[in-house]
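User: Quick sanity check before I run a bigger batch. Here is a single chain. Can you write out its predicted 3D structure?
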Amino acid sequence: MTHMTYTKLLNTTLEKYVTSGAEAAYEYISRYAGEMNEDHAQIYNFHYSLAAASGHEEEALTIMKEAILDKGHWYAYDYLIEDDDLNSLRKYEDFQKMVELCKRREEEAKKAAKPKLEIMHPDMEQKESPLLIALHGNQESYKRTKENWQSIVSQGYILGMPQSSEIEFSGGYSWDDVEGGTKELQGHYKEIIEHEAIDKEQIVLGGFSAGARVALNAILKGSIPVKGFIFVGPWLPEIDEVSDELSRLAEMGIKGYVICGDQDEDCLESTERFVELLKEKNIQHTYHLIKGLDHDYPEDFHEILDSAIQFITKGY
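Assistant: Done. Predicted structure follows.
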């Protein structure tokens, strides 16, 4: 059986909801939610929403109580009062109490929200270290970045993992403000070079989904002097609007490595347009299209990451 990942569970649950209905989606997420190693607020959200939508009201309230009262999660107030899947729960006093609790937590969290940077260091001692900065996707956190990119540390890289200041729910951060995210990324870069011994000729930017969008914007603005970029399932809705600016990548000798699944309904179209433009602008790049993959990291991403680094730094 294919290894179940956080994103695969969410993507497949949504697919079942669309194609087979709430009950099938609820049964699916109920079967696999326990396989996740970490406590994920979003999985709880899918679970209780689908329970409510398929008529399992008591189960839905039980799952909500575990998420909100026991685990301390919160969800956006507007979502809780407007989402149709939760209509059957609005008659319950316990539900209304949890909505009000989430509203207070949301207000506090957004007031306290600020950019965050986590760093992993290699074990080996060296005068200067190459640097890879990788950005999470929307509704994720730096923990998702660490899970997928940390193998780069064994190659002597310092790994920087920015976390957006835009919080949507417990542990869910997004990059909706591209310019704001670019400024945050630039600030993280300045912080890293101020406190770390970095080989500035060996800097790579990486990103998943919306994180790639911010990373590309930062590269085009010259915010960070990169040698190359590694994008996974990049979400690039405005790619044609910046097509002329992409010529700078060739002028600066920046190389790219792009990874996307052939089942990625969210990002495949814009990714392939991006790759077309890379070809047109004579930008050195590799495009790795993964058969059967949806909007997620491939299972062998650690091996692909090694290949991407070799291509960017050594040309093969």
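The chain has a mean pLDDT of 94.

User: Great, the batch can go ahead then.
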